[in-house]
Structures are given as structure tokens and as C-alpha cells.
């Protein structure tokens, strides 16, 4: 039986997700429904991507008995509210990153998933890429000895994009792209909580972070350094340095297709898209879709690649970084 998907939100990421799905066997995955707040938009999207059903409200999708999982691709300021709608309706959910605006909201989503006994995963698609699977395998066999330092960079000039810079839209470098650097560090250190976090950054006039540098210290004298910016292009790679060598995830580190282990490079090419994409390497969204399918087939309620505990810790770290840098959202006082 194919996994039947319901897409929530007819924006850019849902477009790319739909294109990525076309690279997977139709017997395994099928997009059954697209829901938008505008029926016209949903119908237009359905026509473009060959989706049989279109809804003009999220509630209709929440009440549809014929879908296995909802892909939540709305703006992250809406994740908490709309996510709870689906979870309380007994739907499995793959929620785009960042999971929500702060750790309180994330814990609400996790609690709702557990209470309703449904699957929930934050769509940190990076974790499902073959490159990241190989990194985990290399670390498990201590291929570079003991890891001492992890560095991750992500900078992309996007000051012209409203959702990146406006506070009401949950803007800032941290929530949009810094999340990728931080999740990489947590993956390398197996979801361990850092002993200390030091962050400094500069803000835009709108009050969101433009560029941030974070240094984290972990147990056994291990460190991590992350730098992210929505004002400048950065190397966008990630390096794991150990006592016996190094692993380098070549840019774009959040959706990588190449890995260098002790100077030896291996490529992991992506399938070509059937339609133009909005974001880099988006056919790689196929990997998280397949990860979800495998979890559902096994009856799991969360993904071992991106456990809910990792998502909670990730958001707690982001809360602390925002506190140090001085970014406050209206959701923080709810």
C-alpha cells in the first residue's frame, strides 16, 4: 500500500516536496490531498502536481479519513496552532522546520502526539540524506578517532525576503538556517545537551537576528562552533575534527551531495527534478518522505533519525541563543 500524504500549505516548500515525491515509486507514495486556506490556490496547486483532491481549509484535511500523514508546510509561526489541529484529530504529522517558535510550543506538539498516539517528526531533512547516514556510520566506528571540534556554517543573502526579516513572520537567521548548523552538532554528539552555550550576534532594525556566532562546550572537552547569517554568503559546509582525522560535509551542508573523509571525496548525486525547484537540492526531500514511510510501516511514533527529544533540545538551545542575542517573539509571552 502506498503511503497517502495530505499536504497542508500550497507554498514554495510544498511545491518542492511534491516535485521530490515524483522521484519515488508511485506504489510507495501518493499525494492524495492539498489543503490551503484558499480553495483557489489549492485547486491550482492540485492541477499543477496532479493531486486528486483540493481543500480550501485545514479543518477539512484534519477530518479526511483517507490520508496516512500530513506534511505541514505552512509558515513556522503557524506550526503550533495548525500542528495541534492535526495531532488532536489523530493525524500523523511531518512538520517543517523550525518545529515551532519556542520550546514551550514544541513541547505542546510532542505532548499532543503522545496523548493521541500518533507519529510526529520535525522535517530536518538533512538527517535523512545519504551523506548524513554515512557521517553517523563513520562516527560510530570512530573513523576519525575521538571528535574534538565540530564547525558548521550557513550564510545566505536573503534580506530581501520578508519571511526572513520580519518579526511577525518569525524571521531571523537562527530559526530559518541556524537550525541546520545546530542540528548537525546535536547529531554528531548524539543528542547530548551542551554544558555551556555562548552566543553573540547582530540584529536587524526589525529586532530579528541577522548574523550569529555560537560556541558550545560538551562533556569530555569537546566543542562546537556555528556561524549563520541572512546577510552574507558563508562556506555553508560542516567539519568534524577528530584525534585521527576529519570529516567534511561539503556545502550545502543542509542538503549535501558530497563528503570528504580524510581528503577522500565521495559524491552522492540527487535525482533530477521534473519541474523547476524553489530551493537548492529539493529533490532530496524524497529521503525524509521515505524515512516517514518506513517509520509508519514499522508502527513507530517518532523517527530514530530525528527523535522528538532532539527537537526539544534543539529548540531549547535556540531559546537560549535568542535570549543571549536579544531576540524576543510575541509567542514567547503566550
From TrEMBL:
Keywords, comma-separated and alphabetical: Oxidoreductase
Any single Pfam family the record assigns to this protein: GFO_IDH_MocA_C3
The EC number(s) this enzyme carries: 1.1.1.179, 1.3.1.20
Limits of the GFO/IDH/MocA-like oxidoreductase domain: 133-247
GO function terms (MF aspect): D-xylose 1-dehydrogenase (NADP+) activity; nucleotide binding; trans-1,2-dihydrobenzene-1,2-diol dehydrogenase activity
InterPro entries in UniProt: Gfo/Idh/MocA-like_OxRdtase_N, Gfo/Idh/MocA_domain, GFO_IDH_MocA-like_dom, NAD(P)-bd_dom_sf
Signal peptide: none
Domain of life assignment: Eukaryota
Every Gfo/Idh/MocA-like oxidoreductase N-terminal domain range: 4-121
UniProt cross-references to PANTHER family, sorted A to Z: OXIDOREDUCTASES, TRANS-1,2-DIHYDROBENZENE-1,2-DIOL DEHYDROGENASE
Family, as annotated: Belongs to the Gfo/Idh/MocA family.
The protein, known as: Trans-1,2-dihydrobenzene-1,2-diol dehydrogenase
